[in-house]
Design goal:
4 strands, 8% strand, Pre-rRNA-processing protein TSR2, rRNA processing, signal, Pre-rRNA_process_TSR2
């Protein structure tokens, strides 16, 4: 039981440090603290119920983020968190585990004083309802979203080559 309590504390700390969840909590109207504890409980149950792999944990993380927080996590952070949780589970009997969890909790406390920000550039384009669908159904209000990646470096336009009267390109 002491090791399970330690693992539960570690799960909570890992979840509270996960930028995807922190951002979802900041933008969500859901009961944040309560939902995180339920999230941690489901993860703990998964580990107690069977021998789990990275894929099992990642699938659960993504499912809960989608269903409970209306958030689709498309980066590799769920995979990294899954690996961290499995490593924590495997090292529960280690004497260094208690100090590691305390360090994680201190990081959570420091992180709690900062906000996670994300910038999404969206272009929203209405889709006509006149298009013929293969299944014959027309849905109103469909919105097609296109995301443009931000430019990291401004490009300078190359000047057009200058060609003289004889057809030679000036350098």
């Amino acid at each position: 039981p002491a090791q399970l309590t330690l693992f539960a504390r570690a799960i909570l700390a890992h979840l509270r440090l996960w930028p995807a969840l922190r951002l979802a909590l900041q933008t969500s109207t859901a009961q944040g603290k309560e939902n995180v504890q339920l999230f941690a409980s489901e993860i703990l149950e998964l580990f107690q119920s069977k021998r789990v792999g990275v894929d099992d944990v990642e699938e659960l993380l993504l499912q809960i983020m989608d269903e409970e927080f209306d958030t689709l996590v498309e980066d590799e952070s769920a995979l990294a968190l899954s690996r961290a949780l499995i490593l924590t589970w495997e090292n529960l009997t280690s004497p260094e585990m208690e100090p590691s969890v305390k360090l994680l909790e201190e990081q959570v406390e420091r992180a709690g004083r900062t906000r996670v920000t994300a910038q999404v550039r969206e272009e929203v384009e209405e889709v006509d309802g006149d298009d013929d669908d293969d299944d014959g159904e027309e849905e109103e209000g469909d919105v097609e979203m296109q995301y443009e990646a931000p430019r990291l470096v401004e490009r300078k336009e190359k000047p057009e080559p200058v060609v003289d009267d004889d057809g030679f390109t000036l350098v």
